[in-house]
Amino acid sequence: MKYLESQGFIIRGYLIPPFELKSGKLIRIYIPNFSENNEILGVDLATELIEVFKQSRPEKGLIVKESLPYAKNYAQNRLAEKLFPLSVQKYLTTNLKVPKEEAESIISELGIEPSRRLDKISFTERKYLTISGLYSSNEAIMFDYYGVDAMNIELVNRLIKSKVSKGKCAIGFDNLQYMETNEPFENVERLIIKKATNINYSGQRPANA
Questions:
Q1: Are the C-beta atoms of 125 and 110 separated by less than 8 Å?
Q2: Half-sphere exposure of residue 138, counting CA atoms within 13 Å on the CB side?
Q3: How far apart are the C-alpha atoms of 135 and 133, rounded to whole Å?
Q4: How confident is the model over 127-184, as pLDDT tens digits?
Q5: Nearest to 92 by CA among 65, 119, 67, 114
Q6: CA atoms within 13 A on the CB side of 177
Q7: How far apart are CA 159 and CA 157, in angstroms?
């Protein structure tokens, strides 16, 4: 199944190349951390693209057949965290609406106790829970690698590889400066975001280019 199709479009002067998000595929979008003017670009542009892919605003050259949910990093209000600490199981079953048995299976994959407080596990483990929870009720999602260090990225890659091998799919945003020579598994399409030059999209170079 095809969930999203980009014919190529431009945001903030940067070209988002043509691609298709289909079942059994990861679209990994690499964004430079800084613009040519040394302004922060990576996370800001990723956030803008997330809104576009969620259909929060129309974009010429983009066809979204199904709005994609985003695995946003969760942080509980500090006061609520003290008064009503959230367990990892409650986070999955209440916040992400994951059935109890499936939530227990997800937690066991991480090797932590269901009663463990969400704020006491690592950043990457919370990201893992959020991605897994969204996949419980969705075939296609968006996520990002921001904040995941080199020691823990394998945890995220292993999860995405498992889901993609079962026919699910995702768009993942990453920092261009950390791009490796090869992707960690098959069925990954790599997109590198660059400054748009003499290209008129949808996808055609001017005749005099």
A1: yes
A2: 21
A3: 5
A4: 999 999 999 999 999 999 999 988 899 999 999 999 999 999 999 999 999 899 999 9
A5: 114
A6: 9
A7: 5
